[in-house]
From TrEMBL:
Classification via SUPFAM superfamilies: (Trans)glycosidases (SSF51445)
UniProt record similarity statement: Belongs to the glycosyl hydrolase 1 family.
UniProt cross-references to PANTHER family, sorted A to Z: GLYCOSYL HYDROLASE, LP05116P
EC number: 3.2.1.-
Gene3D superfamilies: Glycosidases
GO molecular function, one term: hydrolase activity, acting on glycosyl bonds
Pfam family membership, one: Glyco_hydro_1
Assigned keywords, A-Z: Glycosidase, Hydrolase
Protein name: Glycoside hydrolase family 1 protein
Taxonomic lineage from the root: Bacteria, Bacillati, Actinomycetota, Actinomycetes, Kitasatosporales
Biased composition annotated in UniProt, kind: Basic and acidic residues: 315-334
Chain positions covered by the region annotation Disordered: 311-342
EC category name: hydrolase
Amino acid sequence: MYEPVPASASDTFPPDFLWGAATSAYQIEGAVAEGGRTPSIWDTFCRTPGKVSGGDSGDVAVDHYHRWRDDVRLMADLNLSAYRFSVSWSRVQPTGRGPAVQRGLDFYRALVDGLLERGIRPSLTLYHWDLPQELESAGGWPERDTAHRFADYAGLVAEALGDRVDMWTTLNEPWCSAFLGYGSGVHAPGRTDPVAALRAAHHLNLGHGLAARALRATLPKAAKLAISLNPSAVRARTQSPADLDARRRIDALANRVFTGPMLKGAYDDDLLRDTARLTDWSFVHDGDLSITKHPLDLLGINYYAPSVVSAATDNRPDNGPDLREPRPDGHGESAHSPWPGANSVLFHRPPGELTAMDWSIDPTGLYDLLMRYTREAPGVPLMITENGAAYDDKPAPDGAVHDPDRIRYLHGHLAAVRRAMRDGADVRGYFLWSLLDNFEWAYGYGKRFGAVYVDYETQARTPKSSARWYGELARTGVLPEAGPDA
């Protein structure tokens, strides 16, 4: 249950703390057939009946491709010091192979130049789930070759933008790419094969390491390399041995399947044992784990809600709902599990307040994760690369959009960040998810995470009250109060 983290209105963040907002290419750009761009797996997924709520797609999204100048002005008005965006792989390298399309790179060159002109630091993510469809048709992330294609793509983008972007993230939330895309099938490409999910996880790890090498070979020495994970704050429902083992199993699949290879150069033995009936992990080749353990300059953490788990009590294999990614219609869950090797684990919704996603509100989970990775990745600075909440925002009669619930959500989580910093966590910045209301994956346009309201009919942008609140925080570095009428 959410318990507010004590914080004073005088809590002050360091002067060099980055205040940013985040987006991703497919969720905001639109223009899916312009500038040489070809379909990604999300274009294909959106055209598969029943996969996306309302039959929505990112074809137009919020038209950022044509309106990016207005959006950069919004960022400047909100005093943002950084902007995290992703590059559309199929806009830059349409087949996932071969030379770059200069028209695609020109869009990102112009965007980055526009950011720099307004004093906003660009933070570039190479992959936010939009694999070129041609690579998926050749096998996708379960195939080893995709990791090498990703490294080639990373090199192309670095050559084009390395002189003006100094913060680079290889992958965003590889857990979602692997286990929702290839395990439960609720994300593109919609496959439901537990072994393919595990293979994809490894090749995403390998792709990260290979891409990091390619970036290091091209970028200036001062450039910062990162990955953005969505680690789960996993909690056992009780302290019984069975529930504690359930927590261990999910921790292995949600967290250590990535941090093991990236931070230690190894997959933990318990993960291998838990999944041994599915695979012998022979897709891990000699030398792979020395590649995956590439030194990080920053570890990005995306956080929304904790997970509460228990062992099944009736001997009925049932994974229960993964509360981070329910079915898009909000009724029931996928029949396929995103948790290979954990069929005896049940998920539970904690009591207390929920967001419009039915996700629990608990900033202590963010605090716990920051302290965990302070211990597990000593010397690696941390960055909150996503944190935010969806609410049912609607304009008032005067056109203003008031969202006090989001302000209280942000206040609680930022107080948790400040508390972690006081307790020794080296947190360098915070990126609000999201700058704009946008295409929310399998939910279509039914969920609004943005600090800026978007009228999808007219594409008009209206900063919500949370945007003004956050902009003042970015200007002063002082965490303001969040009262009931904030």
